[in-house]
Specification:
With about 675 residues, this protein is of the alpha/beta class. Among the domains are: about 250 residues, Alpha-Beta Barrel (TIM Barrel); about 70 residues, Up-down Bundle (Methane Monooxygenase Hydroxylase, Chain G, domain 1), CATH 1.20.58; about 45 residues. Helix content is about 40%, strand content about 15%. The chain is built from 23 helices and 23 strands. α14 runs antiparallel to α15. The longest helix has 22 residues. The radius of gyration is 31 Å and the shape is globular. The structure holds pyridoxal-5'-phosphate. Pyridoxal-5'-phosphate binds next to α13.
Length: about 675
């Protein structure tokens, strides 16, 4: 007997153990290939890896990278930027246009520009200008400050005869005299600014300034297309759109230029139908309309040279390759082919020379390079323990709940759910009238949650979940408290419900048994993320791992310490940083620029996040003054014997040290 028992206990895990979770299952669950290919994947250790150079080049283990940064005292949350990804994006879009131009034998070239508003940070614009140089990749400015960035960051042509080959500087946005004058004067430096007229009054100004300076402008007009965009940003077109000229206004501009013999200055047609265009049919329709306008302008005698198709090239945030707003049903090459073929068809039919093509893709260039990494501070879970057996003496309502729990099955789970809800509500009424004590109410709630948990297990196995049970998953989910501010680091998630892929960056060889929503550390109930990417539509909870407790410390009274659990939020490089705000005074986060080297990687730049003293200064507090106030208060408390000298020193030291610290929590 004994011998047999011993052998059993030494045998490998019995075959009844649940099959081990595989990395492939994590890949499918988090859809990493759909949105992350070719930059992000999962390695054998169950960690997310980054291949900043796409298909050709080494990869980094994201978890190891974060651990390495923490050892360098760079705290979380942090934003990782991979400049090699930026380079790869630029290469890709230019290669796609080169391929399209060759395929259609398009008799002109492509000159892309990067819209600065998408991410204005200096290191990014510097890298873009550097990587874009071989392609004459230019910049687009949408405001005076952005114009100032573009003028100083782009390198002007060295000599006038090289000017035609110069990267373009597209000047969009509302313009005043100073804007236009500055842009015009920049031509003398060897820049190639194109002033895009967005309002009729701008052309009057441009004519006047050009005559005063004796510098001929290159002008463009922005068209208000009647093609309606779709999705979140689909309102940039149509008659009441905020930007651009209607056809009658465009004709007025042509006539005005003609009257002063400057129609040869009008060389570009621009349109922008909105960002994240999820459907290729919208792009085709816009291209058809814009190509006709282009041809007609040429026929009116304008010296047309450029067609600028704006931004809108989408990013597949959910990896579904559909026209869902968080996705797109086309790839870069489809987009490029449609752009090229539409213009070519219209121009050839009208025997108008084909234009140089310009696109202003921001999101598609800048999104992939940034990853936001943050840690989980704690979780709040619905208690999962089995209810204790009932006793005869218990209140009827509790016996009812118990029986409901016992009887739940795949046949009656929907009905059982309604019973459980009703009994719980009755229990609360009874409590409010004084018929149930606190302990009994606790027992009722525990039984209710046990019912929900059992019902949910059944729901998860059903192909179809009845409508009334759809919210059950959400109400049973855990809350993962995360060390970041949605308002600072993912403002579009809060403001316009944009979806970003989110997943753990390690433990991916382990089944994520929990379902959770994320709550940030601001004191705002909106500071949460409860919509996650899914193959179809969105899901309200994310699969996550339970926090793992570290072995208890020598000091037993110490609260449990958890192993770090890191989550990554991906495709964060466009628009998020600049639109982030200081809600609750959580400041800018640490930003680390990583560059691949033959031996691995190097930290190219470290941009430290705000300290508490810095964010306080944004709202006009002077750290020295605050500290001095605190010192006076402690002196007074000492004098009144309300505090010991040691206590006062500890308080002041904490206060002073905190001023120099990161605004986020230190784990
Ligand atoms: C915002 C904007 C862009 C960039 O759009 P993406 O969708 O990010 O590519 C391009 N052009 C203009 C005029 C814009 O306003």
């Amino acid at each position: 007997m004994t011998a047999t028992l011993e052998t059993t206990s030494q045998a490998p895990a019995p075959s009844t153990a649940p099959p081990a979770w595989t990395i492939e299952e994590s890949e499918n669950l988090y859809r990493i290939e759909g949105w992350g290919d070719p930059y992000f994947s999962i390695n054998a250790a169950g960690h997310v890896t980054v291949s900043p150079q796409g298909d050709h080049g080494g990869s980094l283990d994201l978890y190891e990278l974060v651990e390495g940064l923490r050892k360098r005292n760079i705290g979380l949350p942090l934003l990782l930027r991979f400049s090699d990804i930026l380079a790869d994006r630029i290469n890709r879009i230019n290669a796609a246009f080169a391929r399209g131009i060759a395929r259609y034998k398009y008799p002109n070239s492509y000159r892309g520009v990067y819209p600065i508003k998408c991410n204005q940070h200096r290191h990014i614009v510097e890298a873009l200008v550097r990587y874009g140089k071989p392609y004459y990749f230019g910049l687009e400015a949408g405001s005076k400050p952005e114009l100032m960035i573009a003028l100083a960051m782009l390198e002007p042509a060295e000599s006038p005869d090289m000017e035609a080959n110069q990267s373009l500087l597209i000047c969009n946005g509302y313009k005043d005299r100073e804007y236009i004058e500055t842009a015009l004067l920049a031509r003398r430096l060897g820049h190639r600014p194109i002033i895009v007229v967005e309002q009729v009054s701008e052309v009057t100004l441009a004519i006047e300034i050009s005559q005063a300076l004796g510098i001929k402008p290159i002008l463009g007009v922005r068209a208000k297309l009647s093609t309606q965009g779709v999705g979140r940003w689909g309102i940039s077109t149509g008659d009441r759109a905020k930007f651009g000229l209607t056809i009658p206004e465009m004709l007025a501009v042509v006539n005005q230029l003609k009257a002063v013999e400057m129609l040869d200055c009008l060389q570009l047609l621009h349109f922008h139908i909105g960002s994240q265009i999820s459907s290729i049919s919208v792009i085709k329709e816009a291209m058809t309309e814009a190509s006709q306008i282009y041809v007609q302008l040429a026929k009116l005698g304008a010296n047309m040279q450029y067609l600028d198709v704006g931004g809108g090239l989408g990013v597949d945030y959910d990896g579904s390759k559909t026209n869902f707003y968080a996705s797109k049903n086309y790839n870069i090459q489809n987009y490029v082919n449609d752009v090229i073929s539409a213009v070519q068809e219209a121009c050839e039919a009208a025997t108008v020379p084909c234009p140089t093509l310009i696109s202003e893709s921001g999101r598609a260039i800048a999104s992939h390079q940034s990853v936001l990494i943050f840690d989980v501070l704690a979780t709040n879970d619905i208690p999962q323990q089995l209810p204790e057996p009932q006793s005869e003496k218990e209140h009827l309502i509790i016996r009812n709940l118990w029986e409901t729990w016992e009887m739940i099955s795949a046949e009656n789970y929907q009905e059982a759910y309604h019973d459980a809800v009703q009994f719980k509500e009755e229990a609360i009424s009874l409590f409010n009238f004084g018929y149930l004590g606190l302990k009994e109410r606790a027992r009722a709630e525990q039984l209710y949650w046990a019912c929900c948990s059992k019902i949910l297990d059944i729901c998860r196995q059903q192909a179809y979940v009845p409508d009334d049970l759809e919210d059950l998953e959400l109400s049973m989910s855990s809350i993962y408290y995360v060390n970041m501010s949605v308002f600072q680091s993912a403002p579009d998630s809060w403001a316009i419900d944009q979806l970003f892929p989110i997943m753990p960056i390690h433990r991916l060889d382990e089944e994520p048994t929990q379902r959770g929503i994320l709550a940030d550390i601001t004191c705002d109930s909106d500071g949460k993320i409860d919509r996650f990417i899914d193959l179809r539509d969105v899901k309200s909870v994310l699969e996550l791992h339970p926090l793992r407790q570290l072995p208890p410390a020598a000091n037993r009274d110490h609260p449990p310490v958890f192993e770090p659990y890191y989550l990554g939020m991906f495709l964060m490089g466009a628009y998020q940083e600049i639109m982030g705000n200081l809600h609750n005074l959580f400041g800018d986060i640490n930003v680390v620029h990583i560059q691949m080297t033959p031996k691995g990687y190097q930290i190219e730049h470290l941009v430290k996040g705000d300290t508490i003293a810095e964010v306080l200064s944004y709202v006009q507090y002077d750290a020295e003054d605050l500290l001095e106030n605190m010192r006076c208060y402690t002196e007074k408390a000492l004098e009144d014997d309300r505090m010991s000298l040691e206590e006062s020193q500890l308080l002041l030291e904490n206060y002073e040290r905190s001023l120099l610290h990161y605004t986020y929590l230190k784990n």
